[in-house]
Amino acid sequence: MYAYDEIDRTLVNERVAEFRDQVKRRLSGELTEDEFKMLRLQNGVYLQLHAYMFRVAIPYGTLSSQQLRRLAHVARRYDRGYGHFTTRQNIQFNWIKLAELPDALADLADVGIHAMQTSGNNTRNVTSDQWAGVAPGEIEDPRIWAEILRQYTTLHPEFSFLPRKFKFAITASANDRAAIKIHDIGLRLHKNAEGETGFEVLVGGGLGRTPFLAKTIRPFVHGSDLLSYVEAIMRVYNQYGRRDNIYKARIKILVHELGIEKFAHEVEEEWQQMREGALKLDDDVVEDIRSRFFYPAYEKLPHMPDELRKAAHDPQFEAWRKNSVSPHKVQGYAIATISLKPVGGPPGDATAEQMDALADLADKYSFGEIRVGHEQNLALPHVAKRDLPALWKALDKAGLATPNVNLVSDIIACPGLDYCSLANARSIPIAQELTRRFANLDTANLIGRLHINISGCINACGHHHVGHIGILGVEKNGEEVYQITIGGRADENAALGALIGPAVPYAEVADVVEDIVEAYLALRERPEELFIDTVKRLGVEPFRERVYATR
Amino acid sequence: MTSPLEQKKIKIAGPSVVTANRTWDGAVIYRTAAKDWSTDLSDAAIVRANDEARALLAESVADDLGAIGAYIAPVDVKDDGRIEPGNLRELIRRSGVTIGPPAIGLPVQA
How far is A470 from chain B (nearest CA, A)? Predict the structure, then answer.
């Protein structure tokens, strides 16, 4: 956990007071909606179909049990008893009242949570690997750098009115769990040939109506140069990024239109003028941030405790352990992923009761810490292996032990037309139906790792372009129809999926997905060949043939 | 932000209403013939011509205080006079989400 200092606390509290005044002026009529809209957006407040939606940041996906309990409180006190974890380590509340928002923000500020810059044309929540600090083989904890970026970008006057929103993601592992290639700036911590630690900087990734994977602009930037280099990129974007067309305003369009070489040249020129200036990061500053991250006092524990050996005889526990428990950097400990994808449930939703239950379990089994992943699942990052059987039983009691992590029913989905004012089609009911179709765990295990991503409009909040199977809802002649892509992925080998054919009606989507999965099972060379690898080997054609032969 | 009054190209294909969200709590509301807002679609003023629609929208947003995001939405007026939403989006706004409350994972243990 990171411990905020007095500056952070003052900043957050002042922001609450400022927004309280803005809301008061809006409700009294002193501010028009046109005047107020940008102010509310910069505090994470959207207007959706049914009500205001309130998006709260969970920087780099790290939460304390106290903070999770407070989110449960907000869900219960100000909303309808649940929240929705998003694909960018935020949580959204769907039914918040504008008049009560300042109180909700104040309650959150008490525990160091805020909603600053969770919307608007500024730098958004800096995201990272949900296993940061505990993943084996990690170069170093990427959250230290994410926190530096968070402090640097928060309320930065030069970057508060960018041409469009701007998203950072950072990873320090060989396996990219932060989806850095679909971010405006992706950062990968690694070591260069001299053994020094620094960043590969990628730029211009993003999904939406014009998807691009980020390109490497500089293979290695020292940590001391990170802020100056990032600022150089953002200055070039701020200067040349289009403001006349919202659909062409993201940095990915600028990078694409200029070409990465020309863009890199512009950045280099900017950087050379400023790299030795005030943004040079002293080791002392980095160490100060590092010192504010607290790590548990791990015990010396055996690799295979008796409790785990005994529990291995329970097939239900084993089913959960196999897909939910991952190796930890410290012997005797594990990372437990908590699926928020129950059969028939909206992906990423958690009730206030579940949040409270998980906060209690985090206190009991994970040193009071919870993580949020972009896959819309949660994790307990520091579980002693001996405690896994007891944890599983408690999770199961709270309805949080669905053993489907990384399986076909572990679906990423945006809120879609059930909530979102931008959506053209529903996402959640499609996901719900698919979880029912693939509810049989034996079948799901037979299929193996398969990621389905669903978006209810071209804005792609469900990251459909990078789903192994991507589903995009669009509206045609008043009907919901869905375009299906296959072959996308969001990891270190990120790729954009390819369309398999004409869009299909709402009622046929689950059938089509079943057809695709059946085709895969028939086509794979061996059981270990994952869906994504079969698609890579064979291309779209055999799947297209299977889906459209009878349609 | 484009003001609704700038939506000069408004062309309605059938009976329509003006809908918005209430400022203080975001609730879905409909403009009534009495120049007020109601949360009940059956209270909505129905317009059937482009000029009428533009006029109702203009009147609705004259006061910026009570409602935000006003726009014209299609409705279906049934033979018995009932007013139903004219498309899925409006049906969801009127009736709520098409999904149940958050499902709790079913415990596998007895």
Answer: 21
